[in-house]
Structure formats: structure tokens, C-alpha cells
Design goal:
Blueprint: E1 10-13, E2 21-24, E3 38-46, E4 56-64, H1 95-105, E5 109-116, H2 125-134, E6 138-140, H3 144-153, E7 157-166, H4 177-200
Parallel strand pairs: 3-7, 4-5, 5-6
Antiparallel strand pairs: 1-2, 3-6, 4-7
Length: 202
């Protein structure tokens, strides 16, 4: 689930009684369905020091600091309005279900604001200090373009991310992508049962 860096990848899921659904990372390549929520797991670095590697985080809101939007250009009115509302981009009505399943499974689940940067370089310590002042809890290089496209199409989104490392300047150590991948793999043992538990109750 997810990818090895800020490049597109493909995720596949089949839910009982439903058609096959293909989720393509990269907003311009994303196939969205109006019948199901858009499920995706993303890696991100903690700005909030209470978030430690391996922590699962539900994204409650985001800051788009990538300098662009996937909706730039002519609008397709059949998909959605020219100026889509982002107030409820993340599905509040599913958060209680996630908390319930996480509690039953004994999994720590927190919520936070996701800051999306363009990448592919990691952020500087100065940028992390800026993001903290802007209200971000974590930072990554993906997810937000897909959420914008989903909101444009009227699709509900639940964004679940894994804290893979402390953001630049917080740990006193340089950032390592190998460390990011290792923490992401370790989180699978919590993520997969949690996701299955939630899907079973939908």
C-alpha cells in the first residue's frame, strides 16, 4: 500500500458485493468511483512531536503548498463544478467508525492536518518551522491532489497515513528514505487489520 517515494503507483481493492475498483496515485491518473469512498494510505513525516514513527493518522484537513492544483485548466462540468467546495473534503461521518475499530483492536489512531509539499527533496528545518506555525501536524508529498480531484467529483475521502519519521530538524539526524520505507513496512501489521475491520462494518 502506498509507494516508495513521491511517484505514482497503483493500488487495487475489491470489496464484497462490489465491482472492482482501481485507485491510481497521481491526481491526473486517478480513477474515482461515485459508489465507494477513495481509500488510500500515505506516508508522512511528523511535525507534531507527539506523533512518533509507526503512528497511524487520519487526515482531518490539509494545506496545499504544492504550488498548483490538478483542476487547473478547462473544467469538465460532467465531473464537477469549476470551483468545488473543500470544507468537507474529508469524510467526517466515517471518523467515528475508524475510532471504534481502532479501539477494539488496541490500535492508537490520531488525527491531524496534512501539509502537502511538491518534493522530491525533503523539507528544510526552516520549512518545517513554517509549517508548524501554519497549523500542520505532518508533511508529505502526495494525497492532497487526489483529495482535490475526489472533492471535485463528489467522492467521499478517508485519508489514513503512517508517520514514518520525524520531520527535518526535529530529530537532529539527516533524513533517510530507507528509514521511511522501513517504518512504513512495520506499520502494515496494524494498518491491514484496521482497514479490514472498517471495511467489514461499512
Amino acid at each position: 500500500v502506498g509507494n516508495e517515494g513521491p511517484r505514482p503507483s497503483t493500488s487495487y481493492a475489491r470489496l464484497p458485493g462490489e465491482d472492482d475498483v482501481y485507485l491510481l496515485e497521481g491526481a491526473l491518473r486517478t480513477h474515482l468511483t461515485r459508489r465507494l469512498d477513495d481509500w488510500r494510505n500515505r506516508r508522512l513525516a511528523a511535525i507534531d512531536t507527539s506523533l512518533v514513527p509507526g503512528q497511524l493518522v487520519l487526515v482531518s484537513d490539509h494545506l496545499n503548498l504544492q504550488g498548483t492544483s490538478p483542476l487547473v485548466g478547462p473544467n469538465d462540468d460532467e465531473l464537477g463544478p469549476r470551483f468545488p467546495d473543500m470544507t468537507f473534503a474529508y469524510a467526517d461521518d466515517t471518523l467515528a467508525l475508524w475510532r471504534e475499530v481502532a479501539e477494539v483492536q488496541g490500535v492508537s489512531l490520531k488525527e491531524g492536518v496534512y501539509a502537502a509539499m511538491l518534493g522530491p527533496s525533503y523539507e528544510t528545518p526552516a520549512e518545517i518551522r513554517m509549517l508548524h506555525r501554519l497549523g500542520a501536524d505532518a508533511v508529505g508529498m502526495s494525497t492532497v491532489p487526489e483529495v482535490i480531484v475526489a472533492a471535485h467529483c463528489g467522492v467521499k475521502v478517508t485519508a489514513l497515513s503512517v508517520i514514518t519519521n520525524q520531520a527535518a530538524g526535529l530529530s537532529g539526524q539527516p533524513l533517510s528514505h530507507d528509514e521511511v520505507k522501513e517504518a512504513s513496512e512495520l506499520a502494515r501489521t496494524k494498518l491491514v487489520p484496521l482497514l479490514r475491520g472498517v471495511v467489514a462494518k461499512l
